[in-house]
Amino acid sequence: MDKPILQIIVASTRPGRVGLPVAEWFRERAVEHGGFEVELIDLAEVDLPFMNEPNHPRLRQYIHPHTKEWSATVDRADAFVFVTPEYNHGFNAVLKNALDYLHQEWENKPVGFVSYGGVAAGTRALQMLKPVVAALRMTPVFEAVNIPFVAKLLDGEGRLRPTDVMDQSADAMLDALTRLTGALRHLRVAATAV
Question: Are 133 and 184 in contact (CB under 8 A)?
Fold first, then answer.
């Protein structure tokens, strides 16, 4: 059986963002873990306009090419990790928009979170994301990577220098995602067979 696909989704699209180096570090960690085929999905490159589909996403009656491409991208994934900043005690609008474009494509897939920020390490954004992913029938794992004072962890070339705690947290989250991906895959197969 092929390895499941883990998509690491970079939520921030802000110029000079820290999210990309954080996601690149996590991608390397995920590849080393070996449990997944790993894809890095950058919402800055996906560049979805503010929701402009006339039909409810649960119908999958998409009319715009950008939505059809986004649907195909998310549909092929077996698990996700959202790399999210914290903006004003919450997660950013670009990620909410990307989530709201689709419905069935997210169902019965596990999700983990890498959050970053200042003293709160993005944890308030993560807590706001949990009910949103639950409404999309995704299953969040308990394990997470929370990075406080993230700017202090960047080297002179803009690469993230992870701490031991970050590496250990990433490994624990990847282990949890691996276990849950296998369990939820059966639900997705059963749903498509009906």
Answer: no
**pTM here?**
0.94
Segment 30-59 shows an average pLDDT of 96
DSSP 156: T
Q: How many domains does the chain have?
A: 1
103 three-class SS: coil
144 three-class SS? coil
Task: Give residue for tokens 């490994």.
Answer: 171
pLDDT digits (tens, 9 = 90+) for 85-140: 999 999 999 999 999 999 999 999 999 999 999 999 999 999 999 999 999 999 99
**136, 137, 139, 152, 191 from 131: Cα distances, Å:** 9, 10, 10, 30, 23
CATH number of the domain bearing residue 103: 3.40.50.360
Which domain covers residue 33, as residue numbers? 5-193
